Amino acid sequence: MSWIKFTPRISLLCWVAVLIMSSALPLLITSNVKASEELNLIERLKYFFLGKRPRGVASGRQRGGARRDRCPNVPDPLTALVPFDGDGVPFVEQTISDRPTFWFYIPYLPISRRNAEFVLIDENEDDVYSVKFPLSQQAGIASLQLPATAPPLKEGKKYQWVFSVICNPLNRSGDATVNGWVERVPESATLNTQLKLATLREQVYIYTQAGLWYEALATFATLWKNNPQDENLKKDWINLQQNFGLTRIDLEGWTNYSLTKSRNKSSKKPS
Fold this sequence. Notes:
CATH topology of the domain at 79-258: Immunoglobulin-like
Radius of gyration: 25 Å
Distance between the termini: 102 Å
CATH class of the domain at 79-258: Mainly Beta
Strand content: 15-25%
């Protein structure tokens, strides 16, 4: 009789254990997903960086390119932090921002007192934005933020940007120059909803899945800067810089240049 009475108690305990395990299972799965996401953050960015683009690369007026400049020799050259194809030609990267942030590795020290120039060119090869500014920040990764006075990018339009360091003002053919492309695309209602509910880390995933490099890089950089003690993010930040061939790794985040109003109006350039 004692055995018969004991059996229901064992069964009840078993059911309680099952219920506890069932309630804990979603938390366990969520924890595993978070851990997986933590490990896969840089892999996702790498996949995006190395992946092909259906829109490919664009041709157009080139200012600079792969040629010898007249700037001092540096371990790592002026570098645009954008994905490129096997020949080093940058892809046409998309953005949902009307005034995106552009990212570069600038190797020159402020003591050199050099100026830089940023130019934005539309599909008609008109300069829609052009500005010169002094390189007053320390060497390393820098972001360039377009001001509210800059003309907003139009949806469905491609723009070429050109960033130059002026090493000899009397002979601009010796500028250290990099260039790339950006295309503004509309933000879908689904994407907008996802972003509103997402953390910064989740936003990086969302942007990579949506094919938005400029937003993905800016969000990842902000995530790292907000969490400097996170060893995984630190490794990812180092890994990302290495993807661009940089050997002088910047562990202090980055500097920012808030650009000013265009120095001239848009103008048609002769071919």
